[in-house]
Model the fold of this input.
Amino acid sequence: MSLIEKSVIDKIEILESGKIQVRRADIIQKDGMEIHRTFHRHVLYPGQDLTNEDPKVVAIANATWTQEVIDAWQNSVSEPIE
Done:
């Protein structure tokens, strides 16, 4: 009997605002058959530190987070809510 636990980034979504939604699947396999899967999600905001992110997420952020996108995000969160 062999148990294997692994985590994979199985979904990366880019929203219009530039935010990136990341879904990680934690999978347990027994003798090569999946017996359990759970999901964890987190959101990254334009310009956020990517130090501990998966290389695929970093590549997408670097491609989509232009200075214009980062500036627009920063302006949108600093505007007062009425």
Summary: The helical segments are 55-64, 67-78.
